[in-house]
Amino acid sequence: MKKILLSSLLAGSIMSQVNAQGTNVHEIDGDYRTPIKEFSNGFTQDQVQKFRENYNLPHLLKGGDDAVWWGLRTSELFNTALLEPNHKMELVKNINPAVGEIKAQTKHFGEISLNDFMVHPHSYAQGFLVVHKGEIVFENYQGMTENDHHVWMSAAKIIPGLAVDLLISDGKIDENQTIGHYVHDFKHTAYGQVKVKDVMDMTTGLNSEENDETRSDPNSITTRMFLAEFGLPYNGKNEKVRDVLKDAESTHPAGEKLEYGSPHTQMLVLLVEAVSNQPFSEFVDERIYSKMGAESTLNIHLSPNGVAIGHGIVSSRLRDMAKIGMLYTPSWNKTATEQVVSPEIISRIQHGTRSREFYRNGFDGSVFVDRIGDDDVISNARQWDGVWEDGDFWKSGIQSQGIYVSPKKDLVIVFFSTNVPDDSIHRYARQIANSGLFDEEQ
């Protein structure tokens, strides 16, 4: 069942994110950060008032105290579609202390265990959960509680990706057809000429790439789309997401290189709506979330004119994020009443990669390799940031949120964080998967 929650959004402006270095990369030029643990039980009225008065996109992008509040209270700032669970299926707890002792090489703290990272005063980790064969084997909360909803950021991109794959399996989308074939008002636009597969893999050849440069450019497609989604003016005028995407232009042929961008995912949201003849949130509810035994709502936050911000502004409890990951594992029946993700869809992810050279021939692939801390990753595929030869796949968010799935090991790893300059938390995912604790003989 879906409900709509209405909220208001305070004004702000776009600027580039902070890229400071050091032991505490946040405390620079007086940019003090409150220890994340202090927010685990919520915010005082004085803090909320301060965040409201200072609310702007620069603060959100750099991941300070304001971003912690925003990430935990997103539905207070956006109109929100609430996807409610039809039934609950609780996960069994079978904690394995060895998981917390697994170490990773972090960017600023050296090689430390997951337990130590979670409580490190400068990691700003908020929640970390590992599910094996449908059982919780590790769970740790610092800057939030198990009942809090937290924004996924770009980890949410897997939801539009899955929605498109479901329509492909239905025979309603041919990934080798163009966007314009399905979204008719885009037929004569640059996006309209791009194949669905190239949008899924972020190889569109358009000027819609998202990086530090485009996020700091007030005239970029990425910036204009964010402004439209947040209800903020561009050159004195409020735009609509759909109109911004129509202004994208081709810079080179599609399929030549990976150029990551949230506008690509937002185009998939419009594709799903055009083909299904449903609002995106209703489609996700009907085909995905209503089948799950989730604990609480999946909150899909909306632009001012009601378009789902599917590329990142989605929030949920951490356990429900893990349950979505479980849909890709053999233990799907411990979290869903019917199989949502077919073996065919999983195979498309695992076998749909471009080459290692393709992935690394550009800005984005190298960023993902560094983020996950593992050079064995082959490439991205179908909105996932990394796919490995062993069949595992992973998706990250800009403020160090993430989801890692190993279908073979029946393993799901999810985490929430509010840390832009140091994304070391991702590096524990592959270390956990390769620790030997979850090999078949275990």
Topology:
Blueprint lengths: L1 E4 L39 H10 L2 H6 L2 H8 L6 E5 L8 E2 L9 E3 L5 E3 H6 L5 E8 L2 E7 L8 E2 L6 H12 L9 H4 L13 H5 L11 H5 L4 H9 L11 H6 L15 H15 L3 H8 L10 E5 L11 E3 L1 H9 L16 H8 L5 H5 L2 H10 L6 E3 L2 E4 L5 E4 L5 E5 L4 E7 L9 H7 L9
Parallel strand pairs: 3-7
Antiparallel strand pairs: 1-2, 2-9, 4-5, 6-7, 6-15, 8-10, 9-10, 11-12, 12-13, 13-14, 14-15
Helix pairs in contact: 5-11, 5-12
Organism: Flammeovirga yaeyamensis
InterPro entries: Beta-lactam-related, Beta-lactam/transpept-like, Diverse_Enzym_Activities
GO molecular function: hydrolase activity
Strand order of the largest sheet: 3-7-6-15-14-13-12-11
Question: Biggest β-sheet: count, sense, barrel?
Answer: 8 strands, mixed
Derived from helix and strand composition plus strand pairing, the structural class reads alpha+beta
Distance between the termini: 39 Å
The helicity comes to 25-40%
Q: How many separate helices?
A: 17
Task: Characterize the overall form.
Answer: globular
What's the mean pLDDT score? 92
Strand content: 5-15%
What is the number of strand segments? 15
Round the Cα radius of gyration to an integer and report it: 20 Å
Poorly predicted runs are 7-23, 25-29
Please provide a written account of the structure.
With 442 residues, the protein is of the alpha+beta class. Helix content is 30%, strand content 15%. It contains 17 helices and 15 strands. The protein has helices at 45-54, 57-62, 65-72, 114-119, 158-169, 179-182, 196-200, 212-216, 221-229, 241-246, 262-276, 280-287, 318-326, 343-350, 356-360, 363-372, 427-433; strands spanning 2-5, 79-83, 92-93, 103-105, 111-113, 125-132, 135-141, 150-151, 298-302, 314-316, 379-381, 384-387, 393-396, 402-406, 411-417. The chain is globular, with a radius of gyration of 20 Å. The protein starts with a strand and ends in a 9-residue tail after the last helix. Mean pLDDT is 92; it is low at 7-23 and 25-29.
